[in-house]
Amino acid sequence: MNQHVPARKGYTACPHDCPSTCALEVEIVDPRTIGRVRGAEDNGYTAGVICAKVARYAERNHHPDRLLKPLQRVGAKGEGGWREIGWDDALDLLAEKFLQAEARHGSEAVWPYYYAGTMGLVQRDGLNRLRHAKRYSGEFDTICTNLAWTGFVAGTGRLAGVDPREMALSDCVVIWGTNAVATQVNVMTHAVRARKERGAPIVVIDIYDNPTMKQADVALKLRPGTDAALACALMHVAFRDGTADRAYLDRFGDDPAGLEAHLATRTPEWASGVTGLSVEEIEGFAALLGRTPRSFFRLGYGFSRQRNGAAAMHAALSVPTVFGHWQHEGGGAFHNNGALWRFDKALIEGLGDLDPSIRHLDQSRIGAVLTGDREALSGGPPVTAMLVQNTNPANVAPEQRDVVRGLMREDLFVAVHEQFMTDTARLADLVLPAATSMEYDDIYRGGGQSHILFGPKLIEHPDTVRTNHFVVEELARRLGVADRPGFGLTERELIDDLLRRSGYEGLEALERDRWIDVQPDFRTAHYLDGFATPGGRFRFRVDWRNLAGPNRPPASLGLLGPVEALSAFPDQVALIEEADAEHPFRLATPPARQFLNSSFTETESSRKREGGPELRMHPDDASGLGFADGQRVEVGNARGTVVLPLKLDAGAKPGVVIHEGLWPNGAFERGEGINVLTGADPAAPFGGAAFHDNKVWIRAA
């Protein structure tokens, strides 16, 4: 008689591009199968709660459509003709194509392209080891974080803030620029605890009635790209009404008198006209902040999706500084903890081989790069060979038509190492099946919290699947650089080296303890001994040109975007795509709850919960145009057009239309996705793509 063998428990970290980086408990059914996935209750930030999509991770890991064998293109690009090819032959072919590109145009003709499909430092960043050893073109990462990070550091001088767990100790939680219910569920864990235990109101500032705004006690729905106007009015009221903490500002502000004078005309009436909020809403919020010292500002990545995002983040961050909230437990601000880790990735990334004279290409401008734009190519050779890992640019990158046109070039060889047949993989010459995070060792750090976590290999990957690390190592051997530092080591050896050279104990200790909490002490996190700027004062007055940011462009690129338009003091900066007579609507493309960028779009449960791509419009706008619910409409601008079914939604703001999620291009009527409409022009001062910042026209399809 067969007896049921209970599943054993494994511990790991969520690998996906999310600030929470949850600590996970995973049921291991057998050596190749996982079962249920839960949040680790004993992790102070995860606190037992994870998002629904990762809770269903077994569905993704064991999906019947997962790529299992290397495939070589047969026939024309994009036609879908493939033949199976062995791993050795596939890697031989890829190395041969890299060598041919190098022989014809020089090493910079090869562009390894990656991002955050996994946040593991070995499997994600190891591609740079090959890049540097071979002197391939560099990649300047701009697609997600740059505007928000830059704006935060403009004020504090350091990419770190108050312990996010302090939200639970707050008397007012402000969630600004992030749909936390959909994208950072753990934010809500701590915010709701503050509401239950302390009666703290939750204030949500966003551009439509998303799931987080529906949970708000105070919901402020403003026009896209007008956050700085609201922030300026809040500070104006603080100075006007005497709720600004002048003693704190005298000690910790660089020029509070100059700021006050600058804000003299930034009244609630002025801000109302810019933001679409009522004067009463602005005055009421300012009064709440003025009487609530323990106000916690959780500032999100929405600031990175608008062309004035760096200035808007700096303005929003200035608000708790003017009120003096930083002084109090449960008060202050948080965005990202990138400055805490002190990681030395010398071996993982092969930094000893880094040559600063090699050009960098802007990740967000992949369409311009691949279609031969001389400026985007920094005056160098065309890109004629690529290896793509951990990203899906044919779907997720802006100016999608240019990206696809570039990937379709016959003189460009593209290999895609992936878990599923993504839009990018469909356009490739060679597709390599990739392992999942449950099938390899890696190390993670939580940008939205303070833990370093080990993610061990929990199950065996399918026999015909390989890790990112394996591909990098095998290419190095074929390309003659396997003797360079960092190659020839296992994932575990690279993790141990990273920890030890970064001042931590080695892997054995991390594996035993499961995570390391690097949250600094209260005084440091609240900047009570001074901000991390020259002189120790919060910068209200910013020299954007000379700012030392966490992701400043390399010298070969220089400053990016219209830097001259940025204001020294916090202000509403006229850089966004304003609606006009030809384009009367603003389009925003925020994340869907069940997807994570283009991941999880392949799982049936996520697709079923999301329904399908659609355009949300306020009923008054639809009525004025004679549109009905469910009607097919065409949405367009100078970049292109897409066709979508219309959903009437009073949660949308008049004049603003919303498309949630990164659906596969094939889910759209014409086979082109929403990023046909988004722009890749760099945002000031350090670059970045403004995905929520688009003017469009809409007509019946």
Automatic annotation (TrEMBL):
Domain of life of the native organism: Bacteria
InterPro entries hit by this protein: Asp_de-COase-like_dom_sf (IPR009010), MoPterin_dinucl-bd_dom (IPR006657), Mopterin_OxRdtase (IPR006656), Mopterin_OxRdtase_4Fe-4S_dom (IPR006963), Mopterin_OxRdtase_prok_CS (IPR006655), Prok_Mopterin_Oxidored (IPR050612), YoaE_C (IPR037920)
SMART domains reported for this sequence: Molybdop_Fe4S4
Keywords linked to the UniProt accession: Iron, Iron-sulfur, Metal-binding, Molybdenum, Oxidoreductase
Cofactor list: Mo-bis(molybdopterin guanine dinucleotide)
MF term (GO), any: metal ion binding
Domain 4Fe-4S Mo/W bis-MGD-type, first and last residues per copy: 7-65
Family: Belongs to the prokaryotic molybdopterin-containing oxidoreductase family.
PANTHER family found in the cross-reference section: OXIDOREDUCTASE YYAE-RELATED, TRIMETHYLAMINE-N-OXIDE REDUCTASE
Protein's name in the database: Molybdopterin oxidoreductase family protein
